[in-house]
Amino acid sequence: MGTMNVSLPGSLRDFVEQQVRTRGYGSASEYVRALIRADLERQRLRERLLEGAASPPGARADADDFARLRARAAATSAADA
What we know:
about 80 residues, mainly alpha, 3 helices
């Protein structure tokens, strides 16, 4: 794992230290890694949402479609029991 040093003004440093204490992180580095992972996930989700918004509309579902899905889910649950 590589090392990166980050300079923060006092108010941000205090905030990070508070988050480490109150949210159960082991260190400031762990907190920053969690923030970066969350940001990556937000970016991935945004990309997926934009892809979905740009895609053509799908087929419409009606009450019968949902009834079939519920029956299939119930059958799967019964088979797993």
